[in-house]
């Protein structure tokens, strides 16, 4: 095992070895099962002696570290997981910098030092939908976010994207009351609503907020909306939101439904893309940081993506329009 943890790992004679770390115990075992289901789609297997092994990472740094030790002892040259950002540092410390960690977290703060962030991030959603809005002439944008880390990161991402597109992004509001949100944005924009309002959250407040803005300004959303089945929510009619490329995702979603009897969400797609990336790199004997950062990137079921040397993922999300009974793609994905 010394060749894996120290120095440059030697290339294997046959297919590479990787391990999926998923939380099938702890506070969210259903998420781990989704990851496991995705990893076995299409007849693929999880085996201690095959291309992809599986270890339960639980929900604490300690349980994830234990899983990582077992993975490395079993010969893993690449880790897919863990899911939770709080576990990443413990896993990275155990495996060392020569075993890349392809975390499914969406927390970009854990990237670097051999850690690559594959999760769909607030930054990727904001970049996709706000850039598309800018091209349509929507140069003033209000932002209403839920409380907490996701809301803060979404607001920061919108402000950063606005600097690049030339849009005026108003100071973010943390507000769930629709009437108050409309009044505050109107005041902040000098007496009229901005040309667009970004509502990245997908909680219980989404429908009421979207309904209050619908017809008065262009409503924009994040990839989080995919979990709410936007096509069946009248309040979201005519809204635009960032989402995986439906042309790439739909065949995967159909296969997942047929195999497991449940709908495939973004987590299933991220897990599948992570496992398939590790398998691909194993087959070409490139399970390394240089393999992950190859110039041409990768084509996944969530769309194209590529990694920088800093462990950050440039992901191409599409922009979808919520129509009457149909979701249509109005902005294509490109990493």
Describe the structure.
With 335 residues, the chain is an alpha/beta fold. It has two domains: 2-119 and 248-315, 3-Layer(aba) Sandwich (Rossmann fold); 122-243, Rossmann fold, CATH 3.40.50. Helix content is 38%, strand content 19%. It has eleven helices and 16 strands. The strands form three sheets. Strands 6, 7, 8, 9, 10, 11, 15 and 16 form an eight-stranded mixed β-sheet that branches. A five-stranded parallel β-sheet has the order 2-1-3-4-5, with helices on both faces. A three-stranded antiparallel β-sheet has the order 12-13-14. A hairpin with a 5-residue loop joins strand 13 (303-307) and strand 14. The chain is elongated and about 65 Å long. The two termini are 36 Å apart. The model is unreliable at 1-14 (pLDDT under 50).
């Amino acid at each position: 095992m010394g060749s894996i943890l120290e120095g440059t790992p030697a290339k294997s004679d046959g297919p590479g070895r990787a391990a999926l770390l998923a939380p099938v115990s702890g506070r969210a075992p259903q998420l781990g099962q989704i990851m496991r289901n995705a990893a076995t789609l299409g007849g693929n297997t999880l085996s201690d002696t095959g291309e992809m092994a599986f270890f339960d990472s639980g929900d604490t740094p300690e349980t994830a570290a234990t899983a990582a030790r077992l993975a490395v002892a079993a010969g893993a040259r690449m880790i897919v997981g863990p899911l939770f950002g709080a576990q990443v540092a413990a896993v990275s410390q155990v495996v060392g910098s020569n075993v890349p960690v392809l975390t499914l977290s969406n927390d970009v703060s854990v990237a670097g030092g051999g850690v690559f962030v594959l999760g769909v991030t607030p930054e990727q959603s904001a970049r996709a939908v706000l850039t598309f809005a800018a091209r349509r002439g929507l140069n003033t944008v209000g932002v209403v976010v839920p409380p907490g880390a996701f809301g803060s990161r979404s607001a920061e991402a919108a402000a950063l994207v606005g600097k690049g597109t030339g849009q005026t992004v108003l100071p973010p509001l943390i507000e769930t009351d629709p009437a108050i949100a409309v009044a505050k944005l109107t005041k902040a924009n000098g007496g009229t609503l901005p040309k667009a309002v970004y509502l990245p959250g997908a909680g219980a407040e989404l429908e009421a907020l979207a309904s209050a803005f619908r017809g008065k300004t262009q409503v924009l959303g994040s990839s989080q909306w995919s979990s709410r089945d936007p096509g069946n929510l009248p309040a979201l009619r005519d809204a635009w939101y960032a989402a995986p490329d439906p042309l790439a995702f739909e065949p995967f979603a159909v296969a997942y439904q047929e195999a497991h009897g449940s709908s495939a969400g973004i987590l299933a797609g991220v897990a599948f893309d992570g496992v398939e990336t590790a398998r691909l790199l194993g087959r070409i004997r490139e399970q390394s940081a240089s393999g992950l950062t190859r110039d041409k990137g990768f084509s996944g079921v969530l769309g194209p993506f590529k990694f920088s040397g800093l462990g950050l993922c440039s992901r191409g999300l599409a922009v979808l329009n919520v129509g009457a009974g149909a979701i249509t793609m109005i902005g294509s994905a490109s990493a």
